[in-house]
Amino acid sequence: MEHPGISPSLLAWEETIPPRGGTAFTIKAGQICRIVDLEGQQVADFICFNLNDYVDKLSPENTQLLNGTLFLTKGHHLYSTKATQLMTITADTCGVHDIISGSCSEYTNSFRYGVRGTPNCRNNFERALRPYGIPLTEIPYSFNVFMNTPVAQDGRTGIQEPKSKPGDYLDLRADIDLLIAISNCPQERNPCNAFKPTTLQVVVYEVEPTGKGAPVQSSVKARS
Length: 224
Hints:
Blueprint: E1 11-17, E2 22-27, E3 32-37, E4 44-50, E5 53-57, H1 60-67, E6 77-79, E7 85-92, H2 106-113, H3 121-129, E8 143-145, E9 168-174, E10 178-184, E11 200-205, E12 217-220
Antiparallel strand pairs: 1-11, 2-10, 2-12, 3-9, 3-11, 4-5, 4-8, 4-10, 6-7, 7-9
């Protein structure tokens, strides 16, 4: 598959994430992680950790505070619990993402919809990060790529269908060495994924030859 703006010689690694699946992998400083919505209207829950200090991990609160906005796009940064600049958004063909809604879990699905045992992003993260020794209690809440959660003037929020179209992508440059985890959101009980989870793709590439190579990776199979 061709990727706009990426020379094949600079492609380090790519993976297709099935509906309800997930993945975790390492990335070197300077490499770029591209998340592609292959079919449109599919959310990717995204988290990352300082590869040399897992306590220094994505903080949605610091990301909002230090960027001065809830609406992240090209030029904004992801910040950590220690205010480390983790990543920079270098390209964004959609322009609508979410930093306030966290990740779906068995407990929130039970509270909102009266169901238990559902596929969810928190469990996807837990399984993907198990090989790295990171328990659920240490997994942060997420930056939700392509998620559409408008904020009304009176402060009310509500999940709406994503604005992303087939082929839309977000590029995030690693500003330090990182461990990344992505959940292809399984939610089908609200408009988060237009009620039908579909496929995502993740691509890691370089802007110039560095020889850093492909990430170390662990995947989570889809759950039905």
